[in-house]
Amino acid sequence: MCVRFSPLTAEEAQTVLDARGAGRHGIRFIECPDPVHDVRPGSTVPLFVTSGAGGLRVARLEWGFPLDGRPHAVFNTRIESALEQLRRGRRGMWAKAIAKGRCLVPVRAFYESSSTEKVVSEKTGRTVRRQYRFRMPGARAFLLATVQQDGRFSIVTTEPSASVAPIHDRMPLVLGPGESDEWLGPDFAELANRIHIELTAKPER
Q: With contact defined as beta carbons under 8 Å apart, do 135 and 109 qualify?
């Protein structure tokens, strides 16, 4: 379950779009993203959404769908659940979003909590699960598959790759080079299996 990631700024996201297909890098590489700028559910984040002209544009959306009076209660979308709802005939929380609202969030890193390792929190002194930062090797940034509706977005999750499985039993649907168009196209369901995606894992402390 992804509850935290390192986003790009809106300006950086636009720079990435402007550099797309030009054979140059839009942003600089940052070895260790500053956790001060990390986002969590409820944050407003720059994403890439489809434009009327068939391209992409930067939009700022809130992370998390409302449920039972809570404004950002549902912030992850299981790809298996969304596809099943779509197969049942556009019924369910994710059916419309997965059918018409697929989009992309550019990130420098995302975090997952270890299912076995625990550390003492520097803030509270309590024992908490160790956080691991995941990145794509050598990448300045990479894309996570997301869905959006009514100004809000949710990160799509799937079974973990070999890189993530020792830490957590789910992971964001990470897109590799050239896969963004496929996620936005009609054959997006074929991207559900991420077993081949290689990521680096580093404990936060």
A: yes
Name the residue among 81, 80, 78, 62 with its Cα closest to residue 70: 62
**Alpha-carbon distance values, 129 to 107, 124, 163, 170, 172 (Å):** 23, 13, 18, 15, 19
| Buried-state track 35-63, b at ≥16 Cβ within 10 A, e below 16 | eeebbebebebbbbbbeeeeebebbebbb
The identity of residue 198, as a single letter, is E
What phi, psi does 165 have (nearest 5°)?
Answer: -50, -40
Residue-wise pLDDT tens digits, 26-61? 788 777 788 889 999 999 999 999 987 778 999 999
How long, in residues, is the chain? 205
